Amino acid sequence: MTTPTSSPSSTGAKPKIIATGPNPKIAMGWLHTAKFLTTAPELKHLPRLDVPEIAFVGRSNAGKSTCINTLTQQHRLAYASKTPGRTQSINLFTLGKQGVTDAVLADLPGYGYAAVPKEAKYRWQQVMGNYLQTRDNLKAVVLLCDPRLGMTELDEILLDVIRPRVEEGLKFLVLLTKSDKLNKTEAAKAMQITKLQAGGGDVKMFSALKKRGVEEVAQHLWDWAHPAEKAEQPEKNSEQQDSSEE
């Protein structure tokens, strides 16, 4: 969106156009509408939806539930257990104002916790792999990593699973959570390494404690779920600029 400054001076100079960027308050207000929809231990239990779905994935101790609760400004929307590996189902949360669902967040089971039985690990891997490869309305994936550990072998396996869909247009973001535990030098190094590992995916720092990156990530989610509105923005800018120059 663009806004013209005061009227042209007597010299006939054209008014300057001041660009106004995205409004994070809109994205944050939208995320605050999140409500629990359902939980599904297997894909067959997931409802078929025709709205964009954004999946949150990561290791059991990466802070997925805390991240979702922080973004939605709700303390217990996603269950943040003190026992890693407790969540064994895909949990869906609806988003949308005035009771109209226009997107869904999916909280996938955490992976990689050593104390979880091998049978459960294998089942989760199958469920997540099938979900990420076949969920029709999946539009974006947010991978959460602890920057002190970096992207692990399991994270890289997940990237290999979604890479074909990323090449077809699936949006992909890596969030380095708990960034408040790093100093500036450590954070810069973690960003550099993760960008190389992400293979083209966007990488952002995030801290639920310090609220770092919250509005920026919220804007990403809003844009992914509302591509039509985002696509129309440049046209509006152009039209406003043209009219101001007439």
Task: Please characterize this protein's 3D structure.
The protein has 246 residues and is of the alpha/beta class. Helix 1 (24-31) packs across helix 6. A hairpin with a 7-residue loop joins strand 5 (90-95) and strand 6 (103-107). Mean pLDDT is 82; it is low at 1-20 and 235-246. The protein has a seven-stranded mixed sheet with strand order 3-5-6-4-7-8-9, with helices on both faces. A two-stranded antiparallel sheet has the order 1-2. Helix content is 39%, strand content 19%. It has helices at 24-31, 64-72, 118-134, 153-167, 184-198, 214-225, 227-245, and strands at residues 2-4, 17-19, 35-40, 53-58, 90-95, 103-107, 138-145, 171-176, 202-205.
